[in-house]
C-alpha cells in the first residue's frame, strides 16, 4: 500500500506510567506494542520507522535512553547519541489501544493452527476482494473459518463461547498472517468485533492489532461441499506428499497437472511432460470403492495438494471422491472440524 499521509511513514511513541507504547498504521491495519520502562517524564512523538529501525538494529544489546524535545527524539546509549527529526503526534491517526467489549478468548495455539489450515486457500485476485480474506463465522458456541480462491476451499471449526447472534465478517489475509508472526503459542489470544466501526481488534500480551474488515458478500461455499461420495481413500500423508513432490518435477512443465489413479490397495500418482519426461509412483492405501468403479482417474494441480499436505500435521489423510469432474474432499481422520475441497482438472481420456 502506498503511504497516503507523511505521518503514516512514522511510528508513534507514547511514554507514561512506566510504559512505552509504539504504534504504526497504514489506515487499513494498525499494530501497537507496549513494553515496560523507567519513565521520568511522559511524552509523545512520531518519528520515521525506517530511521529508528536502522538505528536499533545496529546498536548492541543494552539499555536505550529516549528523550523527546518538541518534534525531535534523542536516542542515547553508553557510547552512542543521535537526534531524529519527527512530526507532530497530533497528526497521527486515532487507533485502538485495547481489545474493547464483547471479547472472545481462545488459546493461541488453537487459533494459529486454524489460521495455518485456511490461509493458503485465500485468493490473491484483487478483482474479487471478498476472496482476499478469511470468512469468520462467529456463533454462540463455535467459530468457523473459511477461505477460498475459487479452485479450492478450506474450512476449520473451533469451539468457543461466542456471541448470541451469529456474525459473519471477512478479515484480510495479511492481518491474520501478521497475527501468526507476532503471537506466541503459549499465550491466550483475544479478539472483538464492533459492527459500527467495521473493524476487528486482536489482543495478546502487550500487543494490539486492529484491522478494517473487507466489505461484501462471501460466496455461498456450502453448496459446493460434496453431499455424498463413492470412493474413500485413507493413506499416509507423508508418503503421499513425497509422491506428489516427485510428480511435480515433471508436472511443472505440464501446467502443474498430476493424475491420481485409484487401485484396489494403492494410489498411483503420475505426471507426464512432453518436454521433460514422465513418472509414476504407488502409495499404499486403504480403498473403499462402493460402486466398484474401475480405472478411476482424477487430476489435480499438484501445487494445491502440496499446500494442503504441508499445512496438515496429521499422520494420515482421508480423500473422498464421487466422480472425476466433481470436487474432491480431503479430511483429517483425527480432526472432524477440518475440511478441504479441491476442484479437479478436466483431462481428456
Automatic annotation (TrEMBL):
Residues 106-220 form the DNA polymerase III beta sliding clamp central domain. One of its GO terms (biological process) is DNA strand elongation involved in DNA replication. Its main location: cytoplasm. GO terms for molecular function: 3'-5' exonuclease activity; DNA binding; DNA-directed DNA polymerase activity. GO terms for cellular component: cytoplasm; DNA polymerase III complex. Residues 223-346 form the DNA polymerase III beta sliding clamp C-terminal domain. It is found in: Cytoplasm. Pfam families: DNA_pol3_beta (PF00712), DNA_pol3_beta_2 (PF02767), DNA_pol3_beta_3 (PF02768). SMART domains: POL3Bc. PANTHER family: BETA SLIDING CLAMP (PTHR30478:SF0), DNA POLYMERASE III SUBUNIT BETA (PTHR30478). Confers DNA tethering and processivity to DNA polymerases and other proteins. Acts as a clamp, forming a ring around DNA (a reaction catalyzed by the clamp-loading complex) which diffuses in an ATP-independent manner freely and bidirectionally along dsDNA. Initially characterized for its ability to contact the catalytic subunit of DNA polymerase III (Pol III), a complex, multichain enzyme responsible for most of the replicative synthesis in bacteria; Pol III exhibits 3'-5' exonuclease proofreading activity. Forms a ring-shaped head-to-tail homodimer around DNA. Belongs to the beta sliding clamp family. This is Beta sliding clamp. It comes from Candidatus Woesebacteria bacterium RBG_13_34_9.
Amino acid at each position: 500500500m502506498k503511504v497516503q499521509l507523511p505521518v503514516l511513514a512514522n511510528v508513534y511513541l507514547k511514554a507514561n506510567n512506566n510504559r512505552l507504547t509504539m504504534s504504526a498504521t497504514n489506515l487499513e491495519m494498525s499494530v501497537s506494542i507496549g513494553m515496560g520502562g523507567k519513565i521520568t517524564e511522559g511524552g509523545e512523538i512520531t518519528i520515521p520507522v525506517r530511521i529508528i529501525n536502522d538505528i536499533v538494529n545496529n546498536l548492541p544489546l543494552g539499555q536505550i535512553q529516549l528523550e523527546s524535545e518538541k518534534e525531535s527524539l534523542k536516542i542515547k546509549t553508553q557510547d552512542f547519541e543521535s537526534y531524529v527529526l519527527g512530526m507532530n503526534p497530533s497528526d497521527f491517526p486515532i487507533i485502538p489501544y485495547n481489545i474493547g467489549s464483547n471479547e472472545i478468548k481462545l488459546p493461541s495455539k488453537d487459533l494459529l493452527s486454524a489460521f495455518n489450515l485456511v490461509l493458503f486457500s485465500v485468493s490473491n485476485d484483487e478483482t474479487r476482494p471478498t476472496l482476499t480474506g478469511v470468512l469468520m463465522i462467529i456463533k454462540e458456541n463455535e467459530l468457523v473459518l473459511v477461505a477460498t480462491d475459487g479452485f479450492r476451499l478450506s474450512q476449520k471449526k473451533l469451539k468457543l463461547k461466542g456471541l448470541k447472534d451469529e456474525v459473519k465478517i471477512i478479515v484480510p489475509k495479511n492481518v491474520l498472517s501478521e497475527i501468526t508472526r507476532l503471537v506466541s503459542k503459549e499465550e491466550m489470544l483475544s479478539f472483538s468485533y464492533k459492527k459500527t466501526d467495521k473493524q476487528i481488534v486482536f489482543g495478546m500480551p502487550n500487543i494490539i492489532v486492529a484491522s478494517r474488515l473487507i466489505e461484501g458478500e462471501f460466496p455461498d461455499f456450502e453448496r459446493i461441499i460434496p453431499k455424498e461420495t463413492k470412493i474413500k481413500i485413507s493413506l499416509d500423508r507423508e508418503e503421499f506428499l513425497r509422491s506428489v513432490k516427485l510428480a511435480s518435477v515433471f508436472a511443472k512443465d505440464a501446467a502443474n497437472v498430476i493424475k491420481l489413479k485409484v487401485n484396489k490397495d494403492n494410489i498411483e500418482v503420475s505426471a507426464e511432460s512432453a518436454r521433460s519426461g514422465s513418472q509414476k509412483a504407488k502409495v499404499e492405501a486403504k480403498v473403499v470403492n462402493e460402486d466398484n468403479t474401475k480405472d478411476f482417474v482424477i487430476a489435480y494441480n499438484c501445487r494445491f495438494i502440496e499446500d494442503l499436505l504441508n499445512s496438515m500435521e496429521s499422520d494420515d489423510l482421508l480423500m473422498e471422491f464421487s466422480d472425476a469432474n466433481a470436487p474432491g474432499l480431503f479430511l483429517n481422520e483425527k480432526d472432524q472440524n477440518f475440511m478441504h475441497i479441491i476442484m479437479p482438472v478436466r483431462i481428456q481420456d
